[in-house]
């Protein structure tokens, strides 16, 4: 009835697939960590670069 599904009798055939899944999950976690780290660094750079403009704008709002 469902000939397109393949479930091997020998369960050791699953080992390479499980290993590849683990490799991809670890790779995805590493990439997410790198994105997070880069985002934090870029946010700090932007804050430092535009800090004087923010201070100036906030002072102008307080004075009016």
Descriptive keywords:
rod-shaped, mainly alpha, 64 residues, 0% strand
Description:
The chain has a domain at 36-64. Helix content is 75%, strand content 0%. It has helices at residues 15-49, 51-63. It is mainly alpha-helical. It is built from 2 helices and no strands.
- For the residues shown, what is the average pLDDT? 87
Indicate the percent of residues in helices: over 70%
In whole angstroms, how far apart are the ends?
Answer: 78 Å
Strand content: under 5%
User: Biggest β-sheet: count, sense, barrel?
Assistant: none
Number of helices: 2
Instruction: Write down how many β-strands occur, each being a DSSP E stretch of 2 or more residues.
Output: 0
**Poorly predicted parts:** none
- Helix-strand category: mainly alpha
Order of helices and strands: HH
Brief rundown of the structure:
The chain is mainly α and 64 residues long. Helices cover 75% and strands 0% of the residues.
List the helices and strands and how they pair.
Blueprint: H1 15-49, H2 51-63
